[in-house]
Design goal:
The complex is a heterodimer of chains A (233) and B (235). Chain A is an alpha+beta fold. Helices cover 58% and strands 7% of the residues of chain A. Chain B has 235 residues and is α+β, with helices and mostly antiparallel strands. Chain B has two domains: 75 residues, Glutaredoxin, CATH 3.40.30.10; 131 residues, Up-down Bundle (Glutathione S-transferase Yfyf (Class Pi), Chain A, domain 2). Chain B has eleven helices and four strands; from the N terminus they run αβαβαββαααααααα. The chains are: A alpha+beta (233), B alpha+beta (235).
């Protein structure tokens, strides 16, 4: 009997990606909710001693951490077949494109977005400028790839789309926390086509919290951080 | 053997000093792939080709295969593994869990180890000690993995009998690591606290394909000195 657990917290953008990947593959898994504020559980510290953070995938007792590593693992441990979709395209080049964008989304876009919640002063000002630029960079990237979408590479979801799924519930939070507005469909048609398509998918809806819950949560968390970590978290 | 015309089909945009470029050179050499090296230069404006091939990050290395660019060194290494799957040794294990371990530690080098060393070299002076300590802590984590993880214990390299992706990810930085030790007058990989890691580094640096592409640590020191005098305005 296969045992699959995902250690997560409700707001974690990286955990949302892992949950979506598992659902897309049709894998039954248990969501294990970790503490969103300290202290961290022994279970978390044991399964991810290096980074001590969610998400962690535990497959038959063996832990995998860091979301991009988890996503690749999910693709390979449950390989594509007649009944199991692939999260990566066939050609080596297209695979490298999907990986490139997943990496950009995680390391740049999402990290910048989280700074909107956790940082103040000049760091915050820089983040609010950068996140809009990065949104436009993704639009340009999609256009350069040249497909009609709705996904990054075309009509199949791949790692890049899975990595970006947190934007679906987080977009209003980023806008509120950053006091900004992302460009609309006229300027960023592909990005909005992507958002519209993702919002409709049952696996996405199941893998992300409601946007309004998240907006309230992130606003509260930012106030908490401002009070207890005024230099930023 | 290289197919006819292959050299024209494979170009590597790089700076031979960059540890990230060194990674790709090692991977290409292991697979026996002929390529044309197109040199960018530290301290000089970036070329049109670089800006066009990597508009997002504007950084080397970029592998251009049949005119199509691949960016980010470990993504390039994976691409090389997949595009030339039947050629040369496998750079990654077959088992999905072992592949996850390989990706985890390669990412650790990029996300934790390199930034802490970069901070030691270029960060504010008063943070130097902290950056060095953080670098040592990061190396100790790798030492512990070598000691305790069943994937590595008792093996010659992270990849087993032959070098693999973690060896490439970490080993590509060998001269860079030595130059950071020299510049900061510290020991990052000491034989006493890190016997496995320092033995691994010695073995790695003696491999022929590595010796051919690994720069002299003194060259990094020259660049470091030049950058300290006139820091680059854009990366």
């Amino acid at each position: 009997m296969e045992e699959v657990k995902l250690l997560l917290i409700r707001s974690s953008p990286f955990a949302m990606s892992c949950a979506l990947a598992l659902r897309e593959k049709g894998i039954k898994f248990e969501e294990v909710h970790e503490n969103s504020l300290p202290p961290k559980t022994d279970r978390l510290l044991r399964s991810n001693p290096v980074y001590k953070q969610v998400p962690v995938l535990i497959h038959n007792g063996k832990p995998v951490s860091q979301s991009l590593v988890i996503l690749e693992y999910i693709e390979e441990a449950w390989p594509p077949s007649d009944t199991t979709p692939s999260l990566l395209p066939g050609s080596a080049y297209d695979r490298s494109l999907s990986r490139f964008w997943a990496d950009f989304i995680n390391k740049k876009f999402i990290e910048t977005g989280l700074k909107l919640m956790k940082r103040f002063g000049e760091e915050h000002a820089t983040a609010r400028k950068e996140i809009v630029e990065q949104f436009i960079t993704m639009e340009e990237g999609m256009r350069a790839i040249g497909s009609e979408g709705p996904y990054f590479l075309g009509d199949q979801m791949s790692l890049a789309d899975v990595a970006l799924v947190p934007l679906v519930p987080w977009l209003p939070s980023f806008e509120a926390l950053g006091e900004l507005k992302f460009p609309g469909p006229e300027q960023c048609g592909r990005m909005h086509k992507w958002l519209d398509a993702m919002r409709e998918l049952p696996n996405v809806v199941a893998s992300v919290p409601p946007a309004d819950w998240l907006s309230q949560y992130t606003a509260t968390l930012r106030r908490f951080i401002a009070e207890h970590y005024p230099g930023g978290a | 053997m290289a197919t006819e015309g292959e050299k024209g089909q494979v170009k590597l945009l790089g700076v031979t000093l960059s540890p990230f470029v060194v990674r790709v050179c090692i991977a290409l050499a292991l697979k026996g792939i002929d390529y044309e090296l197109i040199q960018e230069h530290f301290m000089h404006p970036k070329s049109e080709l670089l800006l066009k091939s990597n508009p997002v990050h504007k950084k080397v290395p970029v592998l251009i295969h049949n005119g199509k660019p691949v960016c980010e060194s470990m993504i390039i290494v994976q691409y090389i593994e997949e595009a030339w799957g039947n050629k040369g040794p496998n750079l990654m294990p077959k088992d999905p869990y072992e592949r996850a371990i390989a990706r985890f530690w390669a990412a650790f080098v990029d996300d934790k180890l390199f930034p802490s060393m970069d901070a030691a070299l270029y960060g504010p002076g008063e943070q130097l000690q902290k950056a060095v300590e953080e670098s040592v802590t990061n190396f100790l984590l790798i030492e512990e993995a070598l000691r305790t993880n069943h994937c590595f214990a008792g093996k010659v390299y992270f990849g087993g009998d032959e070098i693999g992706s973690i060896d490439i990810a970490l080993g590509g930085l060998s001269s860079f690591i030595k130059s950071v030790e020299k510049a900061t007058e510290s020991v990052l990989i000491g034989a006493e606290k890190m016997p496995l890691l320092s033995a691994w580094m010695d073995r790695f640096c003696k491999i022929d394909v590595v010796k051919e592409v690994m720069p002299d640590p003194a060259e990094y020191i020259s660049v470091w000195r030049a950058r300290m005098i006139s820091p680059p305005t854009a990366n």
